[in-house]
Amino acid sequence: MTPSQPSQSPQEQSIPQPCKHPRVQIVSRDEESEYVECKECGEVFESSELKDMAIEEKNDPDEEE
Length: 65
Prior knowledge:
- This protein has one helix spanning 47-59; strands at 24-29, 34-38, 44-46.
- The chain has 65 residues and is α+β, with helices and mostly antiparallel strands.
- The protein has a domain at 24-59.
- Strands 1-2-3 form a three-stranded antiparallel beta sheet.
């Protein structure tokens, strides 16, 4: 049996970077929450999570410039 795609070398395989959700749109609101959709990756999540992600990025000691 032959594979349908040739195998790629490790250098050609890249690890996908997580989306940082640079553009979002509000998709739903209720009394306690607001939900947004990332226009880049399509993920839907609570807007408070977006704020938490931004705080974590600022406090991440591994990503020093």
